[in-house]
Amino acid sequence: MTQSRYQGFGDKALPFLKALGFHQSREWFHENKAIFEEHLNEPRGRLIDDLAERLAQEQIPLTCARKTSTFRINRDVRFTKEKHPYNTHLSAVVTRTGTKKDQGLLYFHVSPDDSYLAVGFYAMETDELRAFREAIVNRKPEYDAAIAPLLAAGYVFDTDNSLKRTPRGFEHVTDPDLLSLIKLRHLTLSRRFGPERLDGVKLLDDLVELARTALPFLNFGWRVIDPVRAAGDDATA
Q1: What percentage of the chain has pLDDT greater than the value 70?
Q2: Torsions phi, psi for 95 (to 5 deg)
Q3: Which tens digits make up the pLDDT trace of 162-193?
Q4: Number of domains, the chain
Q5: Domain limits at 145?
Q6: Domain membership flag for residue 201
Q7: pLDDT tens for each residue of 55-89
Q8: Which contacts of 28-37 are long-range, i.e. CB under 8 A and separated by 24 or more positions?
Q9: What is the CATH number of the domain that holds 122?
Q10: Which residues of 113-127 are buried (b: 16+ CB within 10 A; e: fewer)?
């Protein structure tokens, strides 16, 4: 295996993001852009390069690229009341195509206050989400086996924005644990990490390990939603 080019984020990475949250001005950002590039953006790029290489070596069907997998530090403020121009975190996704629109993803989020890794299926189309819920109900033992390695590794379901009521068509479900699953809007799990993971190659190793651990869950989900997507594509062709 080739030696990693990624050797961690710079020691000014988190202080820069914290200061950016305080200043939130284009003038301050451009005055300090060199710090952003050296301590945050370029290390993220090297992390993505090395991660794509490691995943390919292990024949894990996920990839990433600097151009298509990263989120901009600039915020899109067109449709939000909050007009601060910059995000105060750095992030990227890893998917089968390396693009942000693909389903079944890994995600890393670097922030002064809340850094975490996440995995799963986020913002699915309505028919995809319904099919996923049906698969959980009808194939619960298979689903439990797929998710067990992630739970054992300390990942927990993201329950923000869960439905208050049982979704239509699932009124027959009465098991409390099963109900909590089908009320989820996103089938994602996450695990927080501390700033020490930004040193050396720890975060790179964590992401590779997450990809290995998540593969049963991702395969379960892909088998559910890929036919739904294919049927939708045929209908619009």
Answers
A1: 97
A2: -140, 180
A3: 999 999 999 999 999 999 999 999 999 999 99
A4: 1
A5: 13-229
A6: yes
A7: 999 999 999 999 999 999 998 877 777 788 999 99
A8: 29/73, 29/85, 29/86, 35/10, 36/73
A9: 3.30.930
A10: eebbbbbbbbebeee
